[in-house]
Every structure is written in C-alpha cells, then in structure tokens.
C-alpha cells in the first residue's frame, strides 16, 4: 500500500505543479509572534460529516481569535479544501494546502485519503490532525505526524464485541466498505471478537460507491448464510442504501440483528428535521455514537451554535475541539520562542529541465516541536477532555449504545474501555467502584427488528427449504445403533431415534436428509466421517461416533447421549460343579475356625450350666458327649438341653444369633455356586495384555486402533481387524497361536451386545478410557449447543433410557462378570461376629468365676470353724487348696447355698456325712475324702 500511495502522491504532485502556482512567502526575518498562523482543513463539503464540521471549524476559529488569552497578537486563519469524496482529488487538495505553508492540517475525514497524506506530512513535518479518520492502522508508527482527534475504531469494535458477547452470540457477518476505513475496522472487530471467543463468520465487502443492485446482490448472498447478526461498517453518505436493500429483501424482520457503527448515528444526528423514511427502514437497529459528556462549555455554546446543533454530530464537536487543539499547541510553541519557518526539501528539488515544480512544497522547520506540543495539550473541550495517552489515543474512549425505535433514538446503555457495558454514563463510573449497584444491569431492554422484545437467536438455517445433509455410517455389524432400512428416512437405530427425539425438542423446525456413508462391505472409518463434516461435505454426522481428542479438533460434538470407553474381552472356560461343591461356601480356614468356636461355646455353656443344670451333670463320658452334642446341634437349632442360668442364656442368645448369620451366608453362597457357573481366563488385565506378545483384535473403523498404537505403543503387527460379532467369537475361540486373538479391545456398548449373544466370553478388568458418543457438527455451529440441551432434557424426562431399553435391552450374559476371585466366604467376612461372641463368652466366664471365688471363700471359712484341720496331714497346702476348689466347683449350686445359710452356733452344720454332697455318699471314706485338708 505504501508504494501505491507514493505513486498517487507523485501523480498528484505532477498535476498540482502543472496547474497551480505556490504562494510566495517572505523568507526573511520571521517574527517570534507572527501576525497570522495558517492551518488547513480537508473534508468533503457536501457530505454528511462535511456539512456538520464546516460551521464547527469556522465557529472555533472565530472563538479562538476572540479569546485574548490565547495566540496573543496572532490571528488564526483556516484554509479549507474540498476533497469531493475522491481520494485522488483529496490528495491534490492536500498538496495545495501544504504548498501554502500551513503549520497543521485538519482532516481528512476519509481514512483512505489520510493514508496517502500521511506520507506527505511525514516528509514536510506538518502535523495532520484528523477529526474523522477512525481506521486503527493510522495509529501505526509509520505515521508519526498523524494525530487522531477522535476515537479509533479499535475501541468502537471493542464495544461491539462486548454487545455480541453480552447477548451470547458466537458468530457475526461483517458488511463493510472495501477501503482502508472498512478493512481496518473489520480487522479490529475480528481481533476484539476473538478475545471473547467469537468470530466473524463471513466478510461481505462493498465496493466504494456501490450501486443499489450490487448491494442487493451482496445482501442476498449474506442472507443465504447461517448467522443473522450483522455488523455494518460503511460510509455515512452511502450506508443507508444497505438498509434500503435489506428492507426490500425482508432482512429487517424478526430474527435479524443489525449493529451499525457510529456512521449511522452521524447520519441521524445530522438530519435537520429527521427523515421518516430513513427511520422506517432502520427500525430495531443498534447504533453506536461517540459519547460526548454533558459539560458547562457545551451548554454555553448551544445558544451560539444553533446551526451546528441542528446539523451537527459527534464529528462536528471533534472538529471544533481540533481547532482549539492546534491553537493551544501553537500558543505553547510560540511562547517558548520557536519561530514558524519553512525551508526547501532537498528530496523534492526538481531535476534540471523537469516541468514538475516540487520545490513549492517546503518543510516546516520546527514541525516536530509543534507535534510534541500537540501531544502534550490537555484541556476540556465541547466533546470532553482532550488529552492523549502514551499510545497516542484520546483518553476515556466511550460510546453511547442506541436503539432505533419509532421516530427516534433511545439510549440503552454505554460502553467504555474502563467500565465496559453499563447503564450509567462512563464519566459517572470513572470515580466510583465498578461493582456498585449502579452497574449491575448492563443494558436496558431492546426493541429488535420486527418489533419484538425477545432476544433473537442470532442464527437460522441457511438452507431455505433444502434439508440438512446428515452423514450416517453404513454399518455392517452392531446394527442396533444405526442401520439402513426401507423407511422414509432410510435409516433407523438407537442413535437415529435419539437424534430424532432431540430434534423434536428444538423450538424451531429442522429438515434433515440422511445420507449413508460407507461401502456396505465393512464398517466405515469414523474419522473420515468426522472429516467430511469439517469440510462441509455433511452438515452434521450422527451415529455411534466416539468423542475423542483428535475429532474435537475438527468439529463440535453435542452432549454425549451414551457413556462409552474401551474394555477388554477375553475367552473363558466353564468350571463344572463336583461332589464336594458343598464345602466351597467357606474356605478351609473358615471351616477350621467354625469347628473350634463351636466346641469353645459348648464348653463355656457347660461350665456355666454345670452347677445348676442337671442335664449338664453326670459321669465324665456323658458330660463330654453332652458338650459335643450341644455345640454342633446349635447349628441347626436342634439342641435338647435347656439353659437355666442367666449367664448361660446370655451366651446362648449371642451364639444363636451368630449361627443364624452363618447359616444364612452358607445357604446363599452354596446356592450361588450351584446355580451360577464360574468363568476363568488367562488374561489378568490391561498390563498383562500389553506386556504379552499375543494378538489383539479391534473393530474396523473404531478409534481403538489409533489408541492402541499411539497411546499404548502396541506394535501394529499384533493388531487384527475384526468386523462383526461372529468374527469376534471365531478369533477368540482360535486363540492367538492359531490365527486368532488372545483378547479384543472395543468400546463398552459394542461389548455389551457381543456378550449378550456369546456367553462363553467375559470382560477382564474395568473400562480404562472414559468417553461417550455424540453427534458431530461443524465448528461453532449453534445447533450443537441446542441439541446438547435437548439431549439433557431427554435424559431428565426418561425418554433417553426408554429409547436405550427399546434397542439395547434383553442381554443374556452379564458384561460385569469380571475377575477370577473365588466366591468362597473367608474368615474376614465373619471375624466381627466371632469377636462379639468370644467377648460375650469371656465376660460370662469372668462373672461366673468371680462369683465362685466369693462363694468358695465364705464356704471355706465355715468348714474350718466346724472341722479344724488335723495337724498330722503332711500334704502341700497349695495342692490341697486346688483340689478343694475343684471339689467346690463340682458341687451343686443349691448345696452351697444351703451350707452358707447355716451359722456356726446353730444346731445344724454341714457334716462330713451330709448326703447333700454329691460325691460323699454315706461312708466314712467318702466323707473323709471330701473334707478340706
């Protein structure tokens, strides 16, 4: 662009040199305070902006010259040139101004002309102060003498991106004039949208000065596209033609969104009495306007600025402040003793014999110093604060957000780069917290095209009666998910029914045409199917499509409608029951512990009942048989002996509860072992399968092959492609060494169907990848988001499960029969019960023996008083005490109680020959043997 601009500049210089003559300047003794300082102004007089800025510039010059505090003794004059809406003419007029020794140039209003003139002012060191050129690329370091006295489209496009993000639209179509102004603005819009994860779906460029037929043709192309959000960035003088064409094409009805940059507000504000036709075909449009805060300076000028207020706009105020900007800069420049002088440019000296008089263009000697004063100016103008930031932009960029409705404009909010969207004016937010209650509501309500208040969806199907092309895999196996049929749709299956049910929940109609993908000989490649969607060959793809990382880089998926993941299927053999199957419910250790604890509880009950229960007394052999019988008969609750002591009943109650649990567990385990056949396999899990050298099968077309190779690093030589469940079964039966496979890795839904038909295989381990199946759409397709919501609704209302049961229920074999662990019950399952029973027995024994020791102590004292111990006995004292204790324990409880009731001075005492002692009898020998020693 730079070379083209220079060529245009040289051509214009030639025309200028041959058709005009330069004004002569007195080159001797320029005073420090010249009598007059000339500035230039470039704009199109008969344009929307030109009609507004011309009286503003003239009024500003008059006010500057009338103000004694500025440019003391120096008159400011302005030379205006009409660019006539032409880049070529504008360049010529600019060169004419520069040849008249102006210290600064106001304008131009066209960004395209500004790009060319910037090269001239750079060479001649003349500041170019534009009040209307908004192209962001003009802020480039390539143009150091360009001063933007208005807001850059960089900020305006940031405001538009905030609006689009606020209403949650993802794509827009940019309609712009194809010149520097339009291209620069749209480039800034794309960058601003990208920051908010949105994008420009299509750029519709209009030729400068396009005819109405051309505009209509372009809009018809735009209307064929999906997005219904349009950002229009064109010139004020011809931009209304776009809305006229849109109105005639029916594009101003409900469902459409139009956002216009500040060119439209400039047109509306410049209308003297308003144009009813213009308001009619712009109803519902959102418009931006450069924000101009209310100020005392502005109010003071209103009475004098009658013509400007009737025809003025934000650009007219910027033009007024631009004059004052130059005046303040020149005042500082002259106050520091700088002289205004010009000198010949050695680069423009005409060659000998040349007809080009380029020497009339002279360099402003101190132009760089004046430029520095311009950047440092700080004052309050009618458009607000006039002060530049370090990046050469006006401070506090802000915009009003307007909505056209009825016969006027309505402010629905504001935007600034400081506070973002707000319903409060930016100047009121600059000094307050952004999280205050005044900033909770971001925008007021909007009346959209078609006179609707509900936010448009922002997109429509671009097919206009032509149905969407939906790619469907032509499967040759596992047809429960999707299959070809002779119905009107041509396909059916679980995935198809889910898609149709989700489509029916959308608030708008969707017409679909299902197109089969595949050769019908083997399952197609699902990665190729997804790639067809990304290439727009298909508008979407449905079926059993796994959502994996590589595919999400190409397309957008809906919410998964079924869970999936890879799992291992391996061969198994049945284990038949044998004659000793009744021992399998318990482990060997469990059987041993049961035998011991049964005897232990029998002994405890015998000890607790022996003194009080005659059924637990008798000869030693009989008592041993009683203990054994009682112990094992409790297993069947068939014990005949009654317990009479409280401790014995306590222990028996706890023990019978334990027996009840053991019997129930044994019965349940034995039933399971005899009715369910156990499956075993040599494959232990994924690690053992990877470390082996056995062949592994996978389904043709599935992503499992890439996963095994890329993620698990399994050599391709070990992988065997399989197509159908019968191929699965045959390969597993043959085995890895006989041309088959040792195991198959496939997705869980396929495996569940396979195992429902082939029960002699089993899954090994758990699902080792987590994924799901979804429907594929092109990137950023809004239909994917709406269908995801519909799938969630199907899941919540139960219809998704109903469709699943209709197609995938009725499995005969369990896919969850994993592992080779024995079903035998071990000690770990009952140690808590045994612990409780053991503690109860120990507690009962402790209480029992404490009671025995107390009775024995009292009983021994009574006997020693009645029968003193003979001194002739030489037996050891400890031995006789133990024997006496054992003998006492063997006594009946009733006999001991009767003995303790008698007093030493009573008439009755326990005698040696007392028949109450069970082992003493009536003989002297027995009496003597039972006496305490």
UniProtKB/TrEMBL annotation:
Q: Pfam families, per this entry? A: ANF_receptor, Lig_chan, Lig_chan-Glu_bd
Species this protein is from: Urochloa decumbens
Q: Which residues form the signal peptide?
A: 1-22
**Localization in the cell:** Membrane
Key word Glycoprotein present: yes
Extract the PANTHER family matched here: IONOTROPIC GLUTAMATE RECEPTOR
- Asked if the Swiss-Prot or TrEMBL record annotates the protein with the keyword Cell membrane, the reply is no
One BP annotation, GO: cellular response to oxygen-containing compound
Q: Which GO terms describe its cellular component?
A: membrane
- Bias class Polar residues marks the residues at 905-933
Tell me the organism's taxonomic lineage: Eukaryota, Viridiplantae, Streptophyta, Embryophyta, Tracheophyta
**Which InterPro entries does the record associate with it?**
ANF_lig-bd_rcpt, GABAb_receptor_plant_PBP1, Glu/Gly-bd, Ionotropic_Glu_rcpt, Iontro_rcpt_C, Iontropic_Glu_rcpt_pln, Peripla_BP_I
The primary location reported for this protein is membrane
The superkingdom listed in its UniProt entry is: Eukaryota
The name of this protein is Glutamate receptor
Q: Cross-referenced Gene3D superfamilies, in alphabetical order? A: 1.10.287.70, 3.40.50.2300, Periplasmic binding protein-like II
């Amino acid at each position: 662009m730079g070379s083209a601009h220079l060529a245009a500049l040289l051509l214009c210089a030639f025309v200028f040199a041959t058709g005009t003559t330069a004004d002569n300047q007195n080159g001797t003794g320029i005073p420090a305070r010249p009598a007059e300082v000339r500035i230039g102004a470039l704009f199109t007089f008969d344009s929307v902006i030109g009609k507004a800025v011309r009286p503003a510039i003239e009024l500003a010059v008059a006010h500057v010259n009338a103000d004694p505090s500025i440019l003391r003794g120096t008159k400011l004059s302005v030379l205006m040139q009409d660019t006539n809406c032409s880049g070529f003419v504008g360049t010529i007029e600019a060169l004419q101004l520069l040849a008249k020794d102006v210290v600064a140039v106001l304008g131009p209003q066209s960004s395209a002309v500004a790009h060319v003139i910037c090269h001239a002012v750079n060479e001649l060191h003349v500041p170019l102060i534009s009040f209307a050129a908004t192209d962001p690329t003009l802020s480039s370091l390539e143009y150091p003498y360009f001063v933007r006295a208005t807001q850059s489209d960089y900020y305006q496009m940031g405001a538009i991106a905030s609006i689009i993000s606020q209403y949650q639209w993802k794509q827009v179509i940019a309609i712009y004039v194809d010149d520097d102004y339009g291209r620069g603005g749209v480039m800034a819009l794309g960058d601003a949208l990208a920051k908010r994860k949105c994008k420009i779906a299509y750029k519709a460029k209009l030729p400068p000065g396009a005819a109405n037929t051309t505009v209509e043709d372009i809009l018809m192309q735009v209307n064929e596209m999906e997005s219904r959000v349009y950002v229009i960035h064109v010139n004020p003088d011809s931009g209304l033609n776009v809305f006229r064409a849109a109105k005639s094409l029916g594009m101003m009805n409900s469902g459409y969104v139009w956002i216009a940059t500040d060119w439209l507000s400039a047109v509306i504000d410049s209308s003297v009495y308003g144009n009813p036709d213009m308001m009619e075909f712009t109803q519902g449009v959102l418009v931006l306007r450069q924000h101009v805060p209310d100020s005392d300076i502005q109010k003071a000028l209103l009475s004098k600025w009658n013509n400007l207020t009737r025809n003025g706009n934000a650009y007219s105020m910027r033009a007024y402040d631009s004059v004052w900007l130059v005046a303040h800069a020149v005042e500082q420049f002259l106050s520091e003793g700088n002289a205004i002088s010009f000198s010949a440019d050695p680069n423009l000296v005409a060659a000998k014999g040349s007809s080009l008089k380029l020497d009339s263009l002279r360099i402003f000697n101190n132009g760089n110093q004046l430029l520095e004063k311009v950047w440092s100016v700080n004052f309050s103008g009618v458009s607000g604060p006039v002060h530049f930031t370090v990046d050469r932009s006006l401070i506090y960029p802000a915009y009003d957000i307007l909505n056209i409705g009825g016969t006027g404009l309505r402010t629905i909010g504001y935007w600034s780069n400081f506070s973002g969207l707000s319903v409060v004016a930016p100047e009121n937010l600059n000094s307050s917290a952004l999280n205050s209650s005044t900033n909770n509501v971001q925008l007021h309500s909007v009346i959209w095209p078609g006179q609707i208040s509900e936010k448009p969806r922002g997109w429509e199907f671009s097919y206009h009666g032509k149905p969407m092309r939906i790619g469907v895999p032509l499967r040759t196996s596992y047809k429960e998910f999707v299959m070809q049929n002779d119905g009107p749709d041509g396909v059916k299956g679980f995935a198809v029914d889910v898609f149709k049910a989700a489509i029916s929940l959308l608030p708008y109609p969707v017409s679909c045409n299902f197109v089969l993908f595949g050769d019908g000989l083997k399952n197609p490649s699902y990665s190729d199917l997804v790639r067809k969607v990304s290439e727009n060959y298909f508008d979407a793809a449905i079926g059993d499509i796994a959502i994996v990382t590589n595919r999400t880089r190409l397309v957008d998926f809906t919410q998964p409608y079924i869970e999936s993941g890879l799992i291992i299927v391996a061969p198994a053999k049945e284990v038949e029951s044998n004659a000793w199957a009744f021992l399998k419910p318990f482990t060997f250790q469990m059987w041993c512990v049961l035998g011991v604890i049964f005897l232990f509880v029998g002994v405890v009950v015998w000890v607790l009942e022996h003194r009080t229960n005659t059924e637990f007394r008798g000869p030693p052999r009989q008592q041993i048989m009683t203990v054994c019988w009682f112990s094992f008969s409790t297993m069947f609750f068939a014990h005949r002996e009654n317990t009479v002591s409280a401790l014995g009943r306590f222990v028996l109650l706890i023990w019978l509860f334990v027996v009840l649990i053991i019997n129930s567990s044994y019965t349940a385990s034995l039933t399971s072992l005899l009715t369910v056949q156990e499956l075993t396999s040599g494959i232990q899990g994924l690690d053992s399968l990877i470390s082996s050298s056995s062949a592994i099968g996978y389904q043709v077309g599935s992503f499992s092959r890439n996963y095994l190779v890329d993620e698990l690093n399994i050599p391709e030589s070990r992988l065997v492609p399989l197509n159908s469940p019968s191929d699965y079964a045959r390969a597993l039966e043959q085995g890895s060494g006989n041309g088959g496979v040792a195991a198959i890795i496939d997705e869980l839904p396929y495996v569940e169907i396979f195992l429902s038909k082939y029960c002699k295989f089993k899954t090994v381990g758990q699902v080792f990848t987590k994924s799901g199946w979804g429907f594929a759409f092109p990137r950023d397709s809004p239909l994917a988001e709406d269908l995801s919501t519909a799938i969630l609704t199907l899941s919540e209302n139960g219809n998704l499960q109903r469709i699943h049961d209709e197609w995938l229920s009725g499995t005969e074999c369990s896919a969850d029969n994993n592992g080779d662990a024995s079903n035998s019950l071990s000690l770990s399952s009952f140690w808590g019960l045994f612990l409780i029973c053991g503690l109860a027995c120990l507690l009962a024994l402790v209480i029992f023996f404490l009671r025995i020791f107390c009775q024995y102590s009292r009983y021994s004292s009574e006997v020693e008083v009645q029968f003193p111990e003979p001194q002739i006995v030489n037996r050891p004292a400890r031995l006789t005490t133990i024997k006496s204790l054992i003998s006492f324990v063997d006594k009946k409880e009733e006999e001991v109680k009767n003995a303790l009731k008698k007093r030493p001075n009573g008439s009755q005492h326990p005698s040696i020959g007392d028949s109450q002692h069970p082992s003493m009898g009536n003989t002297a020998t027995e009496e003597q043997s039972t006496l305490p020693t």
